[in-house]
Design a protein that fits this description.
- The chain has ten helices and eleven strands.
- The chain has 316 residues and is α/β, with parallel strands linked by helices.
- It has two domains: 185 residues, Vaccinia Virus protein VP39 (Rossmann fold); 47 residues, no CATH class.
- Strand 5, helix 4 and strand 6 form a beta-alpha-beta unit.
- It binds zinc ion.
Length: 316
Amino acid sequence: MNCKYCGNPLDVFYKDMFDNRYGYPGSYTMWQCRNCDHLSLAADFTPAMIGDLYSNYYPRTHMSLEEWQPYKKAAGFMAWFKGLRSTAYNWVPENVRILDIGCGFGETLGYHQSRGCEVYGVEADENIKRVGDKFGFNVKVGLFDADDYQPNYFDYVTMDQVIEHVIDPLVSLKGIEKILKPGGTAILTTPNGKGWGIPVFGKKWAHWHIPYHLHIFSRKSMKKYAAEAGLVLEKSITITNSEWLHYQWLHMAVYPKQGEKSVFWTQSFAERTTSQRIIMKILAGFHRLKINYLITRLFDAFNAGDNIIYFLKKPL
Ligand SMILES: [Zn+2]
């Protein structure tokens, strides 16, 4: 097997990986390109399988329209200390035309609108329709399709923790290139394949998220994918929300067997054993000591954090 876009040979990175969050059956192999270090999961999913994966295994979050609040700007010392500028929306300026792909319940759209932006969103979860209707956002329920928009239309396009889920990232990037204005910017956040987490936590790294994550990028592979789509990787930085490290400890503390659900990720409090409850309480206490904040800030300072923000520019 060869790397899809750089043609170099792939090596097995990990064998026998499985869904250690929601218990989707099957075991999977993670491959790594010898040249660009791109990590890709060998999972030949059909659209029907993807439908089953997300409808029957991936948990649905409850949304209440009454409690809906737009996101706020992450600013100040505590926002820095917690790593809150890890999301793409924080990097979008005021008064621009923006599309957020995978906009969840539209909290980012509310944030951008309050800053004078013209906001568009696309989201597979149909709850977005109610939010869009109430607040007047331009939203589409479903998957991103560049043909839904005019070419050369947006100043910014954002994708927060989405690109690693798509079957073919090049199709998404080409679509983004098409709808961005010349000089426009795409901001993508995604787990970092070259961060400190993989060598330290190995197969138990929380961001493998098998088999939902199909692609884990390196800077080198993102640069290649972007170039193939006609975009230029202008900048990349790692900023990691410190909660992620807390989740990493919890993930490992109650690690499930293949085919079983994680009592941490599924929030099934009643199913937790006494010893699981105790260890999770201890970890919650540890998190209050802010050591997770210090560790994440340290690795981000070396640009080796677990979350990376990519800025891709469409040339003028
Ligand atoms: Zn490659």
